[in-house]
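User: Show me a protein chain along with its predicted structure.
Assistant: Here is one chain, sequence first, then structure tokens.
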Amino acid sequence: SHGTIGKSYDLFLLRHYFNSFRNFRVFSKPIYYSIYYLLYAYPSFWAPPARADATFKVTMVPGDGVGPELMTAVKEVFKAGDVPVEFEEFHLSEVQHMDSDEKLEQVLASMKTNRVAMKGKINTPMEFKGELAGFEMKIRRRLDLFANVVHVNSLPGYSTRHNNLDLVIIREQTEGEYSSLEHESVPGVIECLKIITREKSRRIAKFAFDYATKKGRSKVTAVHKANIMKLADGLFLQCCAEVAELYPKIKYENIIIDNCCMQLVQNPYQFDVLVMPNLYGNIIDNLAAGLVGGAGVVPGESYSAEYAVFETGARHPFAQAVGRNIANPTAMLLSAANMLHHLK
């Protein structure tokens, strides 16, 4: 346990930062309401330490694109609220000549020591440079960050096509299509392997049902393509069904990935908790983020049995916005709030 953060600050400090947000010089309605929601819906997260000397060390990796700007917003909020967190900051990138194995090992060592991290998107180059696994994938594998959780929640005051949405996407992110197993079997023919194992499928299914139970959710839906990938997704679906039998109070359904995409656009209210393999989760995370305002307003987190990494829900570096002061920090601020909740 990381201890307890005590009683919440009064709204004076919250309003102080809310007003200082004008320093960003970009004050559109979506961002205004996003920050308003963060500061007034999550006041209990901004709290003083239980003891004067209680400080939590957290690894921070700003990443590429607007990541450093988003982390600056987090640090300003924490400073204004006197939040008892000390960041160990590391700059790691595969596109900015900061991609040495030594730097990666330093980041991993810090994450293993602190057990909690905040991370921006580390951009993965398109071109093949001799190694298939990028830094993002290496971090997830080395820390066994198997469960990615994205809570898609409508922001009060920010009207979208579907309002009052509240659903959770849980993605297995250590195997599946993103296993870095590709090769050219003969010239002009590439084989890309998708790995699905019983052990990891049952683990992510159990995580989803445990999450639903802990959070008072009523339904878990497994997303798959078992009608075509009968063995791989068939195994995933079988594992979800087996685990579902252990949770009789939670309703269980399954849905094919293509139909799931359509249903999310037409009637997302039918979903509660969705659990799925790696690639499908990557797509659904971004689709669902678009339902409530885009990548700038949805937080995410990744868990192993020992570690927790907090980041944006829709992973996008938004490189074209660098230096323009238009990046919405809400997703990263909400992620920071979730991190403090985790530290309690």
